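WARN no homologs supplied; continuing
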Amino acid sequence: MVSLDDVARIATELPEVVEIEQRGGRAWAVPGATRSGGAKVFAWERPFSKADLRRYGADTPPDGPILAIRVIDLHEKEAVLAENTDAFFTIPHFNGYAAVLVQLDAVTEDALRDALLDGWRACAPPELADRYRP
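OK structure emitted
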């Protein structure tokens, strides 16, 4: 089990990552990654909305804090979801969107670290990502 503080520690160990506030929650971004030079968010707190909860119907949604992390593309999303069935999932709102959701109460720190690195690589400018080899 990991916390949002663990997410912050792992994410900010990556080059040039900043923590920002987004929609009242914490998010992690790479500055200068957008075409206009702005920050590009690669991971963010993602509590369930009322609409998300309605879609679960009688099923119980995952418990605890939820994190969203970008992936390179939809093929990568499917691979991540297939490989990490215990902690990684998606919801209808994310259909067609290159990101996965992570149940922090169920993910290992190693799996989270790998996912954050992949999310960072998906958003970092190529010249920065090419220079970083953990």
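The mean pLDDT is 89.
OK
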